[in-house]
Amino acid sequence: MTCDFLALAQPGVQKLSPYVPGKPVEELARELDLDPANIVKLASNENPLGPSPRVLDAIRGALPELTRYPDGNGYELKRALADRYGVGLDQVTLGNGSNDILELVARAYLAPGLNAVFSAHAFAVYPIATQAVGAASKVVPARDWGHDLPAMLQAIDADTRVVFLANPNNPTGTWFGAEALAAFLADVPEHVLVVLDEAYIEYASGDELPDGLQFLARHPNLLVSRTFSKAYGLAALRVGYALSSAKIADVLNRVRQPFNVNSLALTAACAALGDQDYLARSRAQNDAGMAQLEAGLRELGLAWIPSRGNFIAVDFGRDAAPINQALLRAGVIVRPVAGYGMPSFLRVSIGTEAENARFLAVLRQVLSA
Question: 3-class SS at 145?
């Protein structure tokens, strides 16, 4: 007799579906017998610049130590982050990507009988992390595809322990300003941990987006989550971090796995943090690519959601699945977002000028077929 191991799993886990990432180039090449060199991937919000030369040099220098465990406390990276942002070492939590931070929050603060509040069309890890620990999700309808902060505030109850906010939001690219965030934080009950997910914050310029770190000192129930995967170009190495009060960081470190960030990731993140020229180039390329895609979409008569990330959600006004399949057959990978309640949209990452042009040219062919 075969044991039903799904039935033995926790109830919340039984109802989960595995997270589906953007399709890898190699997978599409195998499926459709395409040349990988001719495939363009604009599905996972990756940095098209390639890694910083400083990062590559730092990794080469660290290779002889691969037989050693990483620094379990991540002292050098914590020190660099603390110095950069003017916080204490005890306010920094390191994660295996910022997803790890979200998981740590759920494990530390959520359980059956409790709930987390987040917006519709928000990052898929929020409901996954919440449901996996048996807590309930309170999903608040979006306003213009973005966070309705007053409605989210109203959704909080005595059993709420976490609110997840993404600014800008993935996959919609929507954002809210400093005044809206300040008003929200001022009214959130002190027993609720506010997780401000700023994975794409580095792509904003000037005062477009509030800097969540400026609110930390006034709000001890705030945690700001960031990553090196996007603008810093380290997606393959998986390193993120949280800045919070020392008390929250202490709780998260009680459930954080030892050595959760590997040595090469720690080394690379320190080098990346010191390369502000690379960050400026990433932002400039993203701005130019966003303008290129918007102009092309306008020529095609398509609508999109204005975005402050390194991606754009395009609305085709009908089921986008056939369009996605046609793009795949032509060797262009973008991201379907029907699972986010957006069946007429495809999310397109900002690529190089040539990659963006290839997407627009193929899309024109697909739509005219």
Answer: coil
What are 147-203's pLDDT values in tens digits? 999 999 999 999 999 999 999 999 999 999 999 999 999 999 999 999 999 999 999
Structure tokens at 369: 């077929």
Rg of the Cα trace of the chain?
21
Tens digit of each residue's pLDDT (9 = 90 or more) over 84-103: 999 999 999 999 999 999 99
226 to each of 100, 243, 285, 323, how far by Cα in Å? 11, 8, 20, 33
273 contacts 234 by C-beta, under 8 angstroms: no
In degrees and rounded to multiples of 5, residue 176 shows phi and psi of: -130, 160
Give the pLDDT of residue 1: 56
Q: Cβ contacts of residue 80 below 8 Å, gap of 6+?
A: 269, 270, 273, 274
pTM, rounded to two decimals: 0.94
Gap between the Cα atoms of 346 and 303, Å rounded: 11
Please write the tens of the pLDDT for every residue from 44-80. 999 999 999 999 999 999 999 999 999 999 999 999 9
* Alpha helices, H only, the chain: 5-8, 11-14, 25-32, 53-62, 75-85, 98-109, 125-132, 149-155, 178-187, 246-255, 263-273, 276-299, 321-329, 353-368
Cβ atoms 302, 360 nearer than 8 A = no
**Which pairs with CB-CB distance under 8 Å and at least 24 residues apart come from 96-99?**
96/238, 96/239, 96/240, 96/260, 96/261, 96/265, 97/227, 97/229, 97/238, 97/239, 97/240, 98/197, 98/199, 98/225, 98/226, 98/227, 98/229, 98/240, 98/241, 98/242, 99/125, 99/240
- Would you call 93 helix, strand, or coil by DSSP? strand
Q: Which two tokens stand for residue 124?
A: 């898929």
